[in-house]
Specification:
This protein is an all-alpha fold. It has helices at 9-19, 23-63, 71-98, 104-116. α2 (23-63) packs across α4 (104-116). Its main location: membrane.
C-alpha cells in the first residue's frame, strides 16, 4: 500500500468497533472534567474577589491609621508558602481529581477545556 493510497474502510470499522466500549467512559470523563474546570474557574474568581476586598479593607484601615501593616513582613511570610503551593499545588490537584478514574485522560482533556471555556 502506497503512502498516498486511501485507508481501507474496514480498518476504520475495526477501530470504531474497538473504541465503542470505551465511549461511555470517555464521554462521562470529558463531561465531568469540563464541569470541574468551569467550577474551578468560578471558585477562583470568588477567591480573587475575596482577596481583593480584604486588601482594600486593610488599606482603608491603614489609611485611617487604625492599623499598621508591615508589608515586608507579610511578603517574607507568604512568599515561600506561595512558591511551594504554585509548584506543587497543580500536581496535587491533578492527582486528587483523577484518583481512581478509569477515564482520567478524557477527564483531563475536559478539565482543560472547562478552564478555558468562555461561559
Amino acid at each position: 500500500m502506497s503512502p498516498t493510497a486511501p485507508a481501507d474502510p474496514t480498518d476504520t470499522g475495526r477501530i470504531l468497533d474497538a473504541l465503542q466500549p470505551l465511549l461511555p467512559d470517555l464521554s462521562v470523563g470529558a463531561l465531568l472534567g469540563f464541569a470541574t474546570g468551569v467550577a474551578l474557574r468560578y471558585i477562583g474568581r470568588v477567591v480573587l474577589i475575596v482577596v481583593g476586598v480584604l486588601f482594600v479593607t486593610l488599606q482603608l484601615l491603614a489609611y485611617a491609621e487604625l492599623i499598621s501593616i508591615n508589608w515586608l513582613r507579610v511578603q517574607a511570610l507568604t512568599e515561600p508558602w506561595l512558591r511551594q503551593g504554585g509548584e506543587q499545588g497543580a500536581q496535587w490537584l491533578g492527582r486528587v481529581l483523577t484518583a481512581n478514574l478509569p477515564f482520567a485522560g478524557a477527564f483531563s482533556a475536559g478539565l482543560l477545556l472547562g478552564l478555558r471555556a468562555r461561559t
